[in-house]
Amino acid sequence: EAVLDRIAAVDGKVGAYITVDNEGALAAADAADARLAKGEGGPLTGLPVGLKDLLCTKGVKTTCASKMLEHFVPTYDATVVTKLKAAGAVFPGKLNMDEFAMGSTTEHSALQTTRNPWDLTRFPGGSSGGSAAAVAADLCLASLGSDTGGSIRQPASHCGIVGMKPTYGRVSRYGLVAFASSLDQIGPMTKSVEDCALMMEAISGHDPKDSTSVPKEVPAYRSLMKEDEGKGLSGMTVGIPAEYWQAEGVDPEVMASVTEAKALLESLGARCVPVSLPHTEYAVAAYYVIAPSEASSNLARYDGVRYGISEREGEGLLALYKQTRSEGFGEEVKRRIIIGTYALSSGYYDAYYKKASQVRTLILDDFTKAFQSCDFIISPAAPSPAGKIGEEGDDPLKMYLSDIFTLSANLAGIPGMSVPCGFTGEGLPVGLQLLGRHFDEATLLKVAWHFE
Ligand code: GLN
């Protein structure tokens, strides 16, 4: 009730929720109360968790912030939703995002604007901007986002909260509306590192419905996080990649905050060593071939027949496709579909998608080598703090370049996290990114916990 009251009072200004499910949430909360009274509570019983609006929820609209799916009501729950329900969570509603998760500011939502709770003239980051703003503004206690190239970590950084992109395969993608299937991962966005660990325990694990989810045991993240309590970080080695720390165009205040964070890690006993990720300069190019290619294929299903809107005035099937897709998709989504269709077309596949996949392997090799001499890597999560709404204008290239620090983790499949590490002079939050070995989310949580 407190969360629903707060949404009613504040969300008119923030714009985080696309759908608020008052009735469903209150009924689930009553059921949670009853279970608690019987001593049957789970780890998240009664806790309100917001969901990015690309996670399928049975009987509740799932729009992907697109005109295409504006009225789409799924007939089943995503696996993460099923798992959260089993752990006792309650869902106040569905959160705004860039259309089909394509963007870095949430301004590409076709349905509404979300504002950064720290400064309402600024964007919250994206694409999981609604998920980040909702947690920052106490419109839920935790949320889920999805991260294809930074969409959990970057908005977490801009909104001063914790966000984790798990290892590819750690969390089932069943029921996540696909953007780029080989890069997408669902992950938690929370107020604290401990909450992040709690959410990770609830959503991780193998799912027979997602063949890319990995049959590995889910660690007890919360107790692992605290196992060396009091010992600081002695014995741990932090990788400092020159390619990230000497990158051009990074805001000096962001650099100052992450430099202080590095000093904090050293004061806790960690040893910093230089590492090299020489293929970093190709990450943006490789990502912006691979992600649009996979998107063009995934979004072919919105044909006016099977899902979402259906528009036809002219004659025949082609008219149906053309009109539905012209009206249903926004500019950024169309741009990606066109780039992806071009890159995958006959005669170009080898030159673009295959080449980008080869670069992807080189990027993975860089990380594998770097992790031979360090336990985890740190960098800024984003090159600048949250900008003003409307400021990025219509310059897609500028937007793509701002993903420089986050994309590589998705290309390599490794886990990444953003944890608040300071503020700019104007009071805007700055996030420190932590990158780890495959399936070693526990180390990231253990380190991030020292920033609480
Ligand atoms: N900003 C990146 C893009 O536009 C990443 C998006 C994401 O992680 N979903 O593709």
UniProtKB/TrEMBL annotation:
Domain called Amidase: residue spans: 1-445
PROSITE patterns to which the protein is assigned, alphabetical: AMIDASES
Classification via Pfam families: Amidase
Keyword Ligase recorded: yes
Catalysed reactions, semicolon-separated: L-glutamyl-tRNA(Gln) + L-glutamine + ATP + H2O = L-glutaminyl-tRNA(Gln) + L-glutamate + ADP + phosphate + H(+)
NCBIfam families on file: gatA
Quaternary structure note: Heterotrimer of A, B and C subunits.
Family note: Belongs to the amidase family. GatA subfamily.
PANTHER family recorded: GLUTAMYL-TRNA(GLN) AMIDOTRANSFERASE SUBUNIT A, TRANSAMIDASE
Protein name, as recorded: Glutamyl-tRNA(Gln) amidotransferase subunit A
